[in-house]
Design a protein that fits this description.
The structure is a single chain. The protein is an all-alpha fold. The chain is about 70% helix and about 0% strand. The chain has 10 helices and no strands. α3 packs antiparallel against α6, α5 runs antiparallel to α6 and α8 packs across α9. The longest helix is centred in the middle third of the chain and has 31 residues. It is globular and about 55 Å long.
Length: about 250
């Protein structure tokens, strides 16, 4: 008689995972793309505020570390404030400029919070498998699906890294008593922050490229994966409802 492999109970981490962590990576990727596209069609301040409230609620209830999402998005929220201030100054009137600035800042904040929430709740391996499955039909047209999926998964993984680098460099400037000021007066100071941030990110990209080259990335055959299950009926219903909600928000708000 062939011995059956032992079955191990779920770990404490798996049992304590929040709903966004347990959600299928393909579901999160498609809904993030649909919501990101829909938010650019929303033209009313009320619609933008509602979309941002949904993103914050998802991050607060579904991410393992909600405070980290907000902490990582904080440097980007400063750019949202600059966008609001610019629209307020250049608008035809104070009210119209404030409304336009709220829409611009709300869009940026939504993208920051939503992308950070998905990135922090999705392991890189799951994101890679999800993109490979979603882009699979493009193989018929000779597209390098494996390379495209790798690029997308790395881009998603780099989102929190960008925020972390901004926080590190800003803290280094603050420890040297660098004055950031407020409003538009802070723009030169943030320019001094972003320059070393890009330098550090390019160094990370070079190290990643060397690691991938050392492992002969791209020279092998088509990548294979285990456990590529289709979406369950409930997941398909959630996906359809989410996409329909994004389309409705883009057309009505």
């Amino acid at each position: 008689m062939i011995a059956q492999p032992p079955s191990y109970p779920a770990t404490d981490a798996a049992r304590g995972a929040r709903w966004l962590q347990r959600a299928d990576a393909r579901l999160k990727a498609v809904l993030l793309a649909a919501a990101s596209a829909a938010v650019f069609f929303i033209q009313t301040p009320g619609g933008i505020v509602a979309a941002l409230a949904v993103a914050v609620a998802v991050a607060a209830t579904g991410c393992p570390q909600p405070r980290r999402v907000m902490a990582l998005a904080a440097p980007g929220l400063a750019l949202c404030a600059f966008g609001f201030a610019y629209a307020l100054v250049t608008g035809p009137s104070l009210i119209e400029g404030a409304a336009s600035g709220l829409v611009i800042a709300g869009r940026m904040a939504f993208l920051l919070v939503a992308s950070a929430a998905v990135s922090l709740s999705t392991p890189s391996s799951d994101a890679l498998a999800a993109f490979q499955r979603l882009l699979g039909p493009l193989r018929r047209f000779g597209m390098p699906v494996d390379a495209m999926a790798t690029v997308l998964s790395l881009a998603l993984a780099f989102i929190p890294r960008v925020f972390e680098e901004i926080a590190i460099v800003r803290s280094a400037h603050a420890s040297r008593a660098a004055a950031f000021g407020a409003g538009l007066r802070a723009l030169p100071a943030w320019g001094r922050v972003l320059t070393p941030v890009f330098v550090r990110l390019f160094r990370h990209a070079d190290a990643l490229a060397l690691a991938m080259d050392a492992r002969a990335f791209g020279l092998g055959e088509r990548r294979t994966a285990l456990g590529q299950r289709p979406l369950a009926a409930g997941e398909r219903a959630i996906l359809a409802a989410g996409v329909a909600l994004c389309v409705a928000a883009a057309l009505l708000l």
